[in-house]
Design goal:
It contains 2 helices and 12 strands, in the order H-H-E-E-E-E-E-E-E-E-E-E-E-E. It is α+β, with helices and mostly antiparallel strands. Helix 1 runs antiparallel to helix 2. The longest helix has 16 residues. It is globular and about 60 Å long.
Length: about 220
């Protein structure tokens, strides 16, 4: 009798490893505790930056659905919104050559670089009401975090710094940012109100504790 044929694994059918949902879940829980303690803004930005830096130090947790670029414009995917509207967590996905206009946020924010790189140029209003670059542009590299807020500087322009490659940054804001009325500006001072919304209509499920019961080291 012939020996049974050995099954050869079909590599094309092997699923990618699932994202480490414990990382984002742990970040959300720690940030919620920080916000609940109601520290002064400088302390919130300092400790929140450390939490975000720990999150973006690893690139194994962002689901692929929330890392997809679009050829039309940069994407803003909501990853988590606090039930009380105190903060939101968003992935910004930048296709090659994509950038924002000059814009504000109206609330505190933290930006952590996950993949690629992005260039940020701060702007300040001049005496005649125009917007002019405020200092030199700077580049955010993977693992780095920067902060914005109306108290420390809230108006900037951001874009993908890597030619021919997608870049991804993780943003945290002190509100449900997709519902906040904000503004974009022309350098001549013209202001246009906008509400950004989000690129997705569903959220990643980070609350299935059977998959990743505790944050990984």
């Amino acid at each position: 009798m012939d020996a049974p044929a050995l099954a050869v694994p079909d590599k094309s059918a092997v699923a990618e490893a699932p994202p480490d949902t414990a990382r984002l879940r742990g970040f959300v829980q720690q940030l919620a505790a920080l916000v609940e303690s109601a520290p002064p803004e400088p302390e919130l930005l300092k400790h929140g930056s450390a939490l975000l830096a720990a999150l973006v130090a690893h690139d194994d947790w962002l689901p692929a659905a929330y890392a997809q670029p679009s050829p039309e414009r940069y994407q803003q995917f909501l990853l988590h919104a606090d039930a009380l509207g105190r903060f939101s967590v968003v992935s910004f996905v930048w296709g090659p050559g994509q950038a924002t206009p000059i814009h504000d946020h109206t609330v505190w924010g933290l930006i952590g670089m996950l993949r690629g790189a992005e260039d940020s140029q701060a702007f300040a209003r001049t005496a005649d009401g125009r917007w002019a670059p405020d200092g030199a542009p700077h580049r955010l590299q993977p693992g780095q975090v920067e902060a914005v807020s109306p108290t420390i500087g809230d108006v900037h322009r951001v874009g993908n710094a890597v030619d021919g490659q997608t870049s991804i940054s993780i943003h945290v804001y002190g509100a449900n940012i997709g519902a906040v009325q904000r503004s974009v500006y022309l350098e001549d001072g013209t202001r246009k109100p906008f509400i950004s919304g989000y690129s997705n209509s569903t959220l990643p499920n980070i609350w299935d504790l059977s998959r990743n019961p505790a944050p990984s080291a």
